[in-house]
Amino acid sequence: MAKSKYSENLIRLKCATCGNVNYFTRKNKKKTERKISLSKFCSTCREHTTHKESGKR
């Protein structure tokens, strides 16, 4: 079976408040060298919090 081109760029987004991994996303590693942080909804905290990149799956 062929390898997916999207699985190589997957990163986990971890909640800065509680530490749960709630989201997976992709990023272009050639253009974005720094770690990303996005404001997302955390179901554990039940509010919008900062989610930071924590690494590959």
What does it look like?
The protein has a domain at 8-46. It has 57 residues and is mostly beta strands. A four-stranded antiparallel beta sheet has the order 2-1-4-3, with no helix packed on it. Strand 3 (37-42) and strand 4 form a beta hairpin. It has no helices and four strands. The protein is elongated and about 40 Å long. The relative contact order is 0.34.
- The best one-word shape is elongated
Hey, roughly how much beta strand do the residues contain?
Answer: over 45%
The CA-CA distance between the termini, in Å, is 20 Å
SSE string, helix = H, strand = E? Answer: EEEE
Quaternary: single chain
Gyration radius over CA:
13 Å
Biggest beta sheet attributes: 4 strands, antiparallel
* Strand element count: 4
Category from helices, strands and their pairing: mainly beta
* Residue runs with pLDDT of under 50 for 5 or more positions: none
Spatial strand sequence of the major β-sheet = 2-1-4-3
Q: How many helices in DSSP terms? A: 0
Mean pLDDT rating: 87
> Which range best describes the helical content: under 10%, 10-25%, 25-40%, 40-55%, 55-70% or over 70%?
under 10%
Give a quick set of tags describing it.
57 residues, 0% helix, mainly beta
Strand-helix topology:
Blueprint: E1 10-15, E2 21-26, E3 37-42, E4 47-55
Antiparallel strand pairs: 1-2, 1-4, 3-4
Structure at a glance:
This protein has a domain at 8-46. The protein is mostly beta strands and 57 residues long.
